[in-house]
Amino acid sequence: MTAKTVEISKMIDMLPDSEQNLVYEFIKRVLLAWDPDFTKVTPQERKALDEADAEIARGDVFSHDDIDWD
After folding, report:
1. Quick one: residue 61, left, alpha or beta (phi over 0 = left, psi -120 to 50 = alpha)?
2. Please, are residues 49 and 39 in contact by the beta-carbon 8 Å criterion?
3. Mean pLDDT of the chain
């Protein structure tokens, strides 16, 4: 979690329950307006996806059968 996210969470936690519900619904509305199908990724998610793609391109992967599951 980023420092800003923690700070926002602390501020919301200071509010009465009824106001927390209002903030929750507002955040939900903003997120749905920004990404109604939940298909966009955050910068952190984009970085993780790019790193995974690079690992696959370099062959830094192994098959399910390579793991000793016992």
Report:
1. beta
2. no
3. 91
